[in-house]
């Protein structure tokens, strides 16, 4: 069991206005949220900007977003997690900054969000000083972890490179170029998009995660061996998004078949996350809001199936077995419809009332 903290700066007003509603989303929090600046997201955002007007400062940073993530085997309850983050904020910010915090339980691992203003209620801007992690954040977090019986703060692996700069050269290639080279090699070896993902993990030793961005659509987050931070495929050159990978693999297949003089009707490219076999491909950016929502629901459903550790075909098999049992019991006369149960219950009540009357007489 362990806990990790990620700290990000909010650099634009638009980003700040979106961050508060995101962390306070009722679907994600289930009511486990708190703020010292208001009740609704609109009130909290207004308070943030009112503080900025009262105490004007220089600079572009609008706020800060801290993310606290527990490991998957953590057993802390949501209410306790909220108390954890509130205690952490009370000691770290000491009531000097507007903030909002929440607990999200919509993922495999419970995690908490904290967004606070860049400007203090007393004037002046927040500054993260050198040594704050070792002298303030780490001791505070580990002390609260002990209080709430959770795992301690996970330390970074000194053997890994946690830099997000994939443009920095190491040898003759940048980190970005190495990722693209490995993906090119994997595409040549892969038979399908699903096979590509498996090979990147098994043969190239990458950590891989699939996600959906409102702006870019479906993407892959790839962490190369020896690095601690992932790079998303929409930050690579053109031709490395999931739909491009699938297209390139299918184009390679068609080329191989043509070389063998095998005539086969061209079929539309098929991704393993598609909703049906009979469809016309539409880029994510061109989809309607409803279609985008459906794509996200399909990916979320697949994630939930994986979370149980049971393949989809076994879930479907279980449903068929239950339906077969229901049919067999009905044929044996055991199955009784709900209406029949109600009528039988009414008849029984009548008999019981009549017997009571006979006893009184």
Task: Describe the protein.
The protein is an alpha+beta fold. It has helices spanning 13-23, 26-29, 41-54, 78-92, 132-147, 175-189, 193-202, 242-259, 289-308, 312-331, 338-360, and strands at 3-10, 33-35, 63-70, 99-104, 111-117, 169-170, 173-174, 207-213, 217-223, 231-232. A five-stranded antiparallel β-sheet has the order 1-3-5-4-2. A three-stranded antiparallel β-sheet has the order 8-9-10. A two-stranded antiparallel ribbon has the order 6-7. The chain starts with a strand and ends with a helix.
Write a short abstract of this structure.
By secondary structure, this protein is α+β, with helices and mostly antiparallel strands. Helix content is 46%, strand content 14%. Helix 4 (78-92) packs antiparallel against helix 5 (132-147) and helix 6 (175-189) crosses helix 7 (193-202).
Secondary-structure topology with pairs:
Blueprint lengths: L2 E8 L2 H11 L2 H4 L3 E3 L5 H14 L8 E8 L7 H15 L6 E6 L6 E7 L14 H16 L21 E2 L2 E2 H15 L3 H10 L4 E7 L3 E7 L7 E2 L9 H18 L29 H20 L3 H20 L6 H23 L1
Antiparallel strand pairs: 1-3, 2-4, 3-5, 4-5, 6-7, 8-9, 9-10
Helix pairs in contact: 1-3, 4-5, 6-7
Please bin the fraction of helical residues. 40-55%
Radius of gyration: 28 Å
What does the main sheet amount to?
Answer: 5 strands, antiparallel
Can you give the mean pLDDT?
83
Q: Count of helices?
A: 11
Instruction: Please list the strands of the largest sheet in the order they lie side by side.
Output: 1-3-5-4-2
Query: How many strands in all?
Result: 10
Structural class estimated from helices and strands = alpha+beta
Shape: extended
Portion in strands: 5-15%
Cα(first) to Cα(last) distance is 71 Å
